[in-house]
Amino acid sequence: MRGPCPRVVLGLHRSRHERPLLTGALDLGVTSVDTSANYFGFRSHTVLARTAGDLLPRLMVSTKVGCFPGRERAERSLDPVRLYEAVEHAARDLGREPDLVFLYNPEHSLGDASAHGRGTLAQACAALDDATSKGLCGAWGVASWDPFPLVGFVDLTTPKPSILMARAGLLVGTRTLEAAEALAVPWDLDRSRLWGMSPFGGSAADPVWDRIDPRVFLRGGDGFSRVQAAFRTSYCLPGVGTMAVGTNDAAHLGELLDALAAEPDEQTIHEYRTLLRERSMGQPV
To answer: Considering the domain 8-203+238-260 in this protein, what is its CATH number?
Structure first.
């Protein structure tokens, strides 16, 4: 059994929500899991409570609200009343208050009018801030797949989240990287309060990881696999303190934890970001 590893969060987006994975993660020192109200067919919270309710007190549980079941397909909403009620339902279905609740991909619901969008986002953030102050969750944050649209809607009057989570890794374009960093400024978030997600751009088994060698981004990277190198490098693109990563295999999770011992080559990563920026000139990446 390893000591606690707060820098890694087990993401349950594609997880089968099986108990052995959670016990395996705990044995590895991964004591945080990230889910969402809409995961597992909108049953993630209840399935977790049923299959691993006794484990949940040992875990830091984060979830997301903002996606709701619809008649034909899921629908997104930033309505503050619905968001507040969703936090209440999360606590009820989990059998405990979540430690952290994210506003889920708010960029999908904001529209194009910046004045209207700014107010809509502020009210949604205020709803989660209120839920936190009422003890329905420990803290709140924002999780954004594409943070670029949010930059124009956030100012110093927007309620400040405790955590910002955005895509991270070698397959993320410069627009997304820079937008995540830009959002951290008005929200006064340092690296320790930035989370990355989807470090492999979907899957560690994607053929892209056989075609490129991310070990060039590490100092002395020969002792690590390409997947390990890609994972370790993702903490620098953008600079984040914690990474949420999904897997159904505790052994794979252990390999990723071993990668944290690697030392990134900051100069090579800087040069890579420069290339990304130059490539995006006149064409968003």
So the answer is: 3.20.20.100
